[in-house]
What does this fold into?
Amino acid sequence: MVSLRLPFAVLAVLVAALMTPSAVAQLRTDYYAKICPKLETIVRSSVKQSMAQSQISGPAVLRLFFHDCAVRGCDASILIVNSNGDDEWRNSDNQSLKPEGFQTIMNAKAAVDSDPQCKYNVSCADILALAAREAVYQSGGPNYPVELGRYDGRLSTRDSVVLPHSNFNLDQLNAYFSGLGFTQNEMIALSGGHTLGAADCPFFQYRIGTDTTMNSAFADDLRKTCNSNPTNGFAFLDYSPVGFDNAYFRLLQGGRGLLGSDQVLYSDPRSRNTVNAYAANQAAFFADFMNAMTKLGRVGVKTAATGGEIRRDCRFPN
Ligand code: HEM
It folds into this structure.
């Protein structure tokens, strides 16, 4: 019964330490101010170059960040390439992640490491968090401050990948996101990430002609798209796939949400008010999206004390 003999003050500190998520507490927007003062400028210009080279880069990076944070936390485990082939990115749910997203992070990491002060001092997880913000900002979205100080994880396995599916209903979406600590509102704001990018036919084709919430003219367009290109057909998640705006929510109001998990946010009366609010007010969507992205960036953050490290090559643990 050692604990009973501890002075109250010591006990109080210990309890507080256990209750405070210390890994989260260490995140700060100025974490690299002395370690790598030019970090944000370097990542900004590198991501800008990648986005100029390919319009897929922005959407791909934003999705990559979500798929990283949702599995084992924001620790860049999605970037690990294990020699035995057992890693997150080889899970079937990650096979549609675009190579441009990975390449954008590799380019940004190389740019960061070309500064002698920064070399091997910035985690891949932080570079990914910054690049995701750039994808949003450089597409016309908000320029929100990014908390930094994450360490990179050392583990990545195929079986650890659990991600939401495009046929999820509202209860399934809520169950998944509440498991990561998000409210329904925050889940809807994060789904607004689908203002960027595209989806391949297999993710929505099953809805055409069967899902009555789908606008019929939209269904006709999608049918043509997928029938004319059965192997590589795709459609944009929003009219303006490289512009970050609230058009996604207006599309949902018109039955033009591409994925079932998008459209259900409007079809289900329990979430419709939030969709309407974001459709009417882009500033409200931007504010909630920024907060939800900051919260996403705190999921499962690693420290040196919890086995994290600053990876030298984002693909391989040191
Ligand atoms: C709500 C649950 C979600 C589901 C079911 C879902 C599912 C999907 C699917 C099926 C695709 C198409 C993949 C392809 O065909 O290549 C996609 C694309 C995308 N997702 Fe999600 N997603 C969800 C949440 C999110 C969140 C929270 C974000 C980020 C904040 C996000 C960002 C993106 C982006 C940017 C794309 C486009 C990627 C590209 O064009 O390469 N998604 N998502």
Residues 7 and 294 are 37 Å apart (CA to CA). The beta strands are 198-200, 234-236. Residues 1-20 have pLDDT under 50 and may be disordered. The chain has 14 helices and two strands.
